[in-house]
């Protein structure tokens, strides 16, 4: 199924959390000179214009990045995220929003490699255009689940993996966990980030339990709910499950998430910042 396009959802609260976690992770990884690989299993187009018809149709960015555009708070990581997005706009106005490929490109150095997988034919063309010009960045017209397993362990022996499936097919929840478990068996020291939507809380409970039962150590969870759980509302929350996260990430998110609840959530919104499995 290739109907999902992230352009309808770019810049929404789910993107804010996902890209802030990604930025914090990559910022940590570039502190060492040693090269690393970045693997993005479901890349999308990579860069979005706010006046695009898809974004204007849903206007989900108004509930996310637009509310943060003039952020003047004292949470440094959140201010850094806003500055990152502003740096990808030519003017003081919000004109563009980067997908995860562009966020990653900002941090990747000459010695690092970027691998970007996308199957949707239109988004693939846009991704190829948006990521053109650097030999170290490779766009693949391949299944990202299989693509990840073909790349681990990387030659660099350092990697950050972001998996962000559309979850249009319900089996993606199981497939995502299965793929991460297999990848971890081959390459246990990599950092793995799995984004998930909360539409049915019981499904997320099962997903978490599978990670807890997997035998993998050092797993954290970061979640922002803009509304209370309700299957009638569609997606009310989203989060990241992180394996081998930077040692600084949990403390950072303990500051970021309460601030995001204040700025982005309704009265019944909440956050979770948890160590699912100890180191």
From TrEMBL:
- What EC identifiers does the entry list? 2.1.1.266
Keyword terms: Methyltransferase, RNA-binding, rRNA processing, S-adenosyl-L-methionine, Transferase
List, in alphabetical order, the Gene Ontology terms for molecular function in this entry: 23S rRNA (adenine(2030)-N(6))-methyltransferase activity; RNA binding
Catalytic activity, per the record?
adenosine(2030) in 23S rRNA + S-adenosyl-L-methionine = N(6)-methyladenosine(2030) in 23S rRNA + S-adenosyl-L-homocysteine + H(+)
Superkingdom: Bacteria
The UniProt record lists the keyword rRNA processing: yes
Catalytic site positions: 164
**Site keyed Interaction with substrate rRNA: positions:** 4
InterPro entries, per database record: RlmJ, SAM-dependent_MTases_sf
Gene Ontology CC terms, in alphabetical order: cytosol
- Binding site residues for S-adenosyl-L-methionine: 19, 42, 100, 118, 143-144, 164
Q: How does it assemble?
A: Monomer.
Family, per entry: Belongs to the RlmJ family.
Q: What is the name of this protein? A: Ribosomal RNA large subunit methyltransferase J
